[in-house]
C-alpha cells in the first residue's frame, strides 16, 4: 500500500481540480510529486516556449521586413503560425490532462485505494 492509502486521507476531487490552476498542483495535493513534476514541466515548458517563440519570431520577422526580405519573412511567418498553434494546443492539452488526472486520482484516494501511477490524458 502507498502512503495515501496508509494515511487514510480523504481527497476532494474539486480541490484537486482547483489546485490544477497550476499544472501539477492537483497531483501534489494527491501526494504524487513525480506526476506533478511531469505535468508542470510539459505544460509550462510548451506554453513558455510558445511565448519565447512568439517574441523572438516576431522580432526576427520585423527585422526581415525592415531589411526588405519579404518572401523569407512570409514563409517564416506561415511556419511560425503553425508552430505557435501546435505548442499552444499541446500545452493546453497537457494542462487539461493534469486536471483530469488530479480529479481521478483524488476520487481513487477517497475510495480508499492508491491513486493510479499511470498518466491520464484529456479526451474529447
Strand content: under 5%
Number of strands: 0
Q: Encode the helix/strand succession as letters.
A: HHHHH
Shape estimate: rod-shaped
Q: What is the terminal-to-terminal distance?
A: 33 Å
Largest sheet: none
DSSP helical segment count: 5
Task: Quote the average pLDDT.
Answer: 90
Overall number of domains: 1
Structural class: mainly alpha
Considering DSSP H and I runs of 4 or more, what fraction of the residues is helical? over 70%
Q: Low-confidence parts, pLDDT < 50 over ≥5 residues?
A: 1-6
Report Rg: 20 Å
Description:
The model is unreliable at 1-6 (pLDDT under 50). This protein has five helices and no strands. It has one domain. The protein has helices at 3-7, 13-19, 25-29, 33-66, 70-110. The chain has 124 residues and is mainly α. Helices cover 74% and strands 0% of the residues.
What descriptors fit this protein?
disordered N terminus; mainly alpha; 124 residues
TL;DR?
This protein has helices spanning 3-7, 13-19, 25-29, 33-66, 70-110. The chain has 124 residues and is mostly helical.
Write the layout of secondary structure elements.
Elements: H1 3-7, H2 13-19, H3 25-29, H4 33-66, H5 70-110
Helix pairs in contact: 2-5, 4-5
Amino acid at each position: 500500500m502507498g502512503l495515501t492509502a496508509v494515511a487514510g486521507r480523504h481527497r476532494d476531487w474539486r480541490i484537486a481540480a482547483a489546485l490544477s490552476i497550476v499544472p501539477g498542483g492537483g497531483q501534489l495535493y494527491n501526494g504524487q510529486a513525480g506526476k506533478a513534476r511531469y505535468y508542470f514541466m510539459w505544460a509550462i515548458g510548451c506554453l513558455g516556449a510558445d511565448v519565447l517563440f512568439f517574441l523572438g519570431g516576431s522580432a526576427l520577422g520585423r527585422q526581415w521586413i525592415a531589411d526588405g526580405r519579404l518572401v523569407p519573412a512570409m514563409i517564416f511567418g506561415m511556419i511560425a503560425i503553425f508552430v505557435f498553434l501546435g505548442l499552444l494546443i499541446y500545452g493546453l492539452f497537457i494542462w487539461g490532462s493534469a486536471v483530469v488526472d488530479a480529479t481521478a486520482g483524488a476520487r481513487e484516494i477517497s475510495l480508499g485505494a492508491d491513486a493510479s501511477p499511470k498518466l491520464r490524458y484529456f479526451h474529447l
